[in-house]
Amino acid sequence: RRGRGGRRGRRGRGGRGGKGRTPASATRRSRRRSSQGFGLKEEEGLKARTTQSKSPTQSKSPTLTPGALIAAAAAARGVDENRDEGVPSFVCNALDFVLVLGGDGTVLWTCHIFGGQGMPPLVAFHLGSLGFLTPFPPSRIEHVIGHVVQGGFPIMLRHRLFCTIERNPKNCDGTLESMKDHTINHAACTKSWVVLNEVVVDRGISPFLTNLECYSDGEFVTQVQGDGLIIATPTGSTAYSLAAGGCMVHPQVPSILFTPICPHSLSFRPLIFPDHVQLRVVVPPGSRAQMYASFDGKDRQQLFPGDAVVMRMSISPVPMVCGGAGASGDWFRGVREGLHWNLRRQQA
């Protein structure tokens, strides 16, 4: 058995028909030529081939998340990957459109990571539960993407709010310790957010009513006593604001919604402001309740007496690709099918 194996091994080395094993020197020369053909050094070419040839049991490849891809692109350009802006501007400027697969929360998260900069059009496919902001079914993904690539698709511009928390200088970094010690961190006073749905100022777990002073372009509007206040966009009019008793507003109507949450008054009705005003919600110095502000349901911030939340319309709306029925058709379909608006049995 060993003899036959040896003879078979010698025939394998010598080869049939006079073909022998490639010498090591020839292998190195071919590797050098292949790596030079791709503009790589020999060590880099060998390293790349070694990485590709590893089996899953030998090593696990890194997960390619959107954050990892953005961080890699930012590092290649020398941009700090620990910044707070989300998607870098050079990545945003290089995009023709953004494909969104998910529900309404995925659309909000996509707008959140782009921040306040101008965004490319969003093409959203409905993979969630409600799908109010995702007009396309996943079964038509090839047709829709092909149509978008060819051009000539309708766009709906959804307005956003630009929001800033102005801290009282006595508690500028937003902590209770700084309020007691009167230390100031001016860098924390400049943080801002851009929201697609709404800004919510509420009392959290405090048992006391809110006592918020509201101003429009510096003019006093009213004092909110209740559970809180919602400042919403027309897109957000069908979200939390609707649940709190606010009216539905078409997303192409330029406006800012002012909706109280459980006001302690029978006559406090929601308002609609024009889009050019700047709203300011102030926590008065004598407020007993602990106040909180959240932005599209994220980044919940505690507010202390003397702090203010300032909101105005953002200069960068979100362009969203519409279906064949256009902007109004998509919105009314969502209102009827998603919210079951005016659903009743037809009278005979």
TrEMBL record:
Keyword Oxidoreductase appears in the UniProt entry: no
Gene Ontology BP, a term: NADP+ biosynthetic process
Tagged with keyword Transferase: yes
UniProt-listed Pfam families: NAD_kinase, NAD_kinase_C
Ranges of biased composition (kind: Low complexity): 50-63
PANTHER family tied to this protein: NAD KINASE
InterPro entries: ATP-NAD_kinase_N, ATP-NAD_kinase_PpnK-typ_C, NAD/diacylglycerol_kinase_sf, NADK
HAMAP family, per the entry: NAD_kinase
Any GO molecular function: NAD+ kinase activity
UniProt source species: Polytomella parva
SUPFAM superfamilies according to UniProt: NAD kinase/diacylglycerol kinase-like
Residue spans of biased composition, Basic residues class: 1-19
Protein name: NAD(+) kinase
Annotated region described as Disordered, given as residue ranges: 1-66
Family listed: Belongs to the NAD kinase family.
Swiss-Prot/TrEMBL keywords: Kinase, NAD, NADP, Transferase
